Amino acid sequence: MLKLILIGACIILAASPVFSQGAGMNLNSPDFTHNSPLPAKFTCLGSGVNPGLTVEGLPSKTKSLAIIMDDPDAARGTFVHWVVYNIPPVNKIEENSAPGIEGINTMGRTAYVPPCPPSGTHRYFFKVYALDSDLNFNAPPSKEGLEAAMQGHVLSKAELIGLFKK
Fold first, then answer.
1. CA-to-CA distance for 56 and 25, rounded, in angstroms?
2. Is the dihedral of CA 72, 74, 75, 79 positive or negative?
3. Which end of the chain is least crowded, N or C, by CB within 10 Å?
């Protein structure tokens, strides 16, 4: 009987979720669901504005947010569509907004670049980072510059993937 109880306890423990620092933050959109098509409005076939995003479960020590949107399926390597940092710790990013300071995208601009793949279905990763501080730059950073500056400051991360094919 004792063996049976221990086995049962082990099964219960094994089925329990393992939480790590920052677990529990979620990124969603009122405009699309994870791994589903982006509405044309947010692409080159529409008005080309950023979709609305909702962030749930922000860590209590969050001082700012950062967003990176990129397309790893681009023919010449990852195409960076949007870089934003020093976003106040809010739960809602409005559609067609610049919620913080914009960094440099692959086009060399500080703006949202709408999805417009030349062929096939591409995946667009919206990644939000909860940070324990604001970040300071002398000039708008690239994705790589932002990622380097975030080292040691990320409390949590969440991502949402949208799909698009012309």
1. 6
2. negative
3. N
Q: Which residues contact 131 (CB under 8 A, 6 or more apart)?
A: 62, 63, 64, 65, 66, 150, 153, 154, 155
**Tokens in use for 82?**
């949007």
Tens digits of per-residue pLDDT, 38-87? 999 999 999 999 999 999 999 999 999 999 999 999 999 999 999 999 99
Strands, E, within 31-98: which ranges? 36-37, 53-56, 64-71, 79-87, 92-93
pTM of the full predicted structure?
0.85
Q: Output Rg (C-alpha) for the chain, integer angstroms.
A: 19
- Token pair recorded at residue 137: 């730059």
Could you tell me which of 132, 58, 136 has the C-alpha nearest to residue 92?
A: 58
CA separation for the pair 49, 121 (Å, rounded): 19
For the chain, list the domains and their CATH numbers: 22-164 (3.90.280.10)
Helices (H), ranges, the chain:
2-15, 143-150
Q: Taking a C-beta distance cutoff of 8 angstroms, is the pair 153, 133 a contact?
A: yes
